[in-house]
């Protein structure tokens, strides 16, 4: 079961505010803890962004855990998750043999599959990373080497004039083509991760 709520956090913040504005002696952490509502669950997920609700869904659906997602906002996905570039990254940027590189590469594959299975708007359009001057070309070489080491397939270095066949308005001396990069509609993706049959208390105080 997945539950999303901001009631507990709102209650806690309000109590702290009330006590701090009071002329009474400073409160103890134990008395504050005893005064707020309790709910026993298997897992507590803090933050109802796309990472938080994805973790909660995995725990609930695939591991049978009862989890509670808490957030200070009245609805999910109102922070960074709704204000990003919506890029599906190929796995080029992170250093090889790191968890970030492994998670990015594997996450890309899983996200494409999830979007196909759940009819989430997305497109594998590829991406051009460009060098606008000769001094930036070595950086492209580093990225290409790093991407290959991370298992990214199809990476290709091209001259600037060839890059303009893909994007006519480009002005660059060289470009790195990443065919497995893409985009996703995050505002369709996030609601699909919420199990509405087991959601309660969202936005209530």
Automatic annotation (TrEMBL):
It comes from Anisodus acutangulus. Keywords: FAD, Flavoprotein, Oxidoreductase. It is an enzyme of class 1 (oxidoreductase). Its EC number is 1.1.99.2. This is L-2-hydroxyglutarate dehydrogenase, mitochondrial. Pfam families: DAO. Residues 42-194 form the FAD dependent oxidoreductase domain. Belongs to the L2HGDH family. The keyword Flavoprotein applies. It catalyses: (S)-2-hydroxyglutarate + A = 2-oxoglutarate + AH2. Its cofactor is FAD.
């Amino acid at each position: 079961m997945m539950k999303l709520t901001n009631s507990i956090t709102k209650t806690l913040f309000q109590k702290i505010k009330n006590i701090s504005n009071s002329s009474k002696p400073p409160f103890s952490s134990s008395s504050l803890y005893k005064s707020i509502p309790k709910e026993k669950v298997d897992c507590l997920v803090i933050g109802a962004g796309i990472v938080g609700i994805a973790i909660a869904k995995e725990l609930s659906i695939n591991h049978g855990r009862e989890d509670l997602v808490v957030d200070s906002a009245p609805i999910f996905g109102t922070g960074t998750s709704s204000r990003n570039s919506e890029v599906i990254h190929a796995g080029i940027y992170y250093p090889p043999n790191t968890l970030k590189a492994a998670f990015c590469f594997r996450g890309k594959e899983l996200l494409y599959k999830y979007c196909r299975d759940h009819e989430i708007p997305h497109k594998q359009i590829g991406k051009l990373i460009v060098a606008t001057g000769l001094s930036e070309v070595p950086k492209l070489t580093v990225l290409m080497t790093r991407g290959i080491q991370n298992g990214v397939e199809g990476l290709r270095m091209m001259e600037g004039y060839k890059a303009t066949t893909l994007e006519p308005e480009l002005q660059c001396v060289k470009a790195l083509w990443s065919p497995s990069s893409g985009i996703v509609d995050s505002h369709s993706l996030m609601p699909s991760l919420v199990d509405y049959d087991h959601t309660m208390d969202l936005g209530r105080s």
